[in-house]
Fold:
Amino acid sequence: MKQVVSFDDVLAEIAVLVRPHFGKGRTAQYIPQLAAVDPNQFGMAICTVKGDEYAVGDADVPFSAQSITKLFALGLALNRIGDEVWTRVGKEPSGTPFNYLSQLEHEEGIPRNPFINAGALAVTDILLNITREPDALVRDFMGLLGVANLTIDEEVAVSELETAHKNRAIANLMRSFGTITHDAEAVVEAYCRQCAVTVTCRQLARAALPLAARGFSPLIEETIFPERLTRRLNALLLTCGTYDSVGSFAYRVGLPSKSGVGGGLVAVIPDHATVAVWAPELDRFGTSVVGAYALEHFSQLTNCSVL
Ligand code: GLN
Structure:
């Protein structure tokens, strides 16, 4: 893996290269507050393990982190209860949309992985054993790592809760199998609030930096994850981080990445840097269209890829 070009030049070039790809997707239609976000926004930020930062466009504009928070929730759960997490949720790509229901019934309430909604609900259920407010725990963890005071967008949270029928169905199905142990509504509420954490590209690139630095945060000078856990989190990102488009995403980008329906994406270049990108229009898999192109250009222009 080598970086032969300057990240400032790369970001400037990407901002131009992605322009033709606006208008190809749609903002998340099933969450009214997200459906209404201005689609013509684009930000990108890089944070290196040495602590250097590079940014372009709307890199300091807050957006809804959504499923990107699942990565940090999982990190917290694994730090607290270790491999016991894997008695509640699997580690395989699902090959199905992130909110798919019937696979879960077939597989007796054990979600395929912690990044689909069912798996994230199981992780929230685990965190509810630790705190009454898992959403605040995740918000503060991301804020600590991102060197920022993050907030939960109450309007986004309420907007999703009002339309979270599918997530309620998933949580109730899991409750019936005993793979969720708390009241299903309480789990869904904490999960939706966690998804409504607001973050900027710059903060997100910082927050993910321990995943590129063998578990250490160079920014707050603290070990966040054991090194082995860091490798495992990156493996899960590479194999499950972008749901049922994870194969084509790895083919195009070649970096462990997590998407969110707010239009954010974060990618890890182990031992080197993290990249966060945001553009609100999504493809049918819930991944930012422009964001995916931006990361594809990034790995091509810099030769940064784990593959
Ligand atoms: N809060 C969203 C949901 O549960 C998160 C989905 C996502 O970002 N992929 O549907």
In short: The chain has a mean pLDDT of 96.
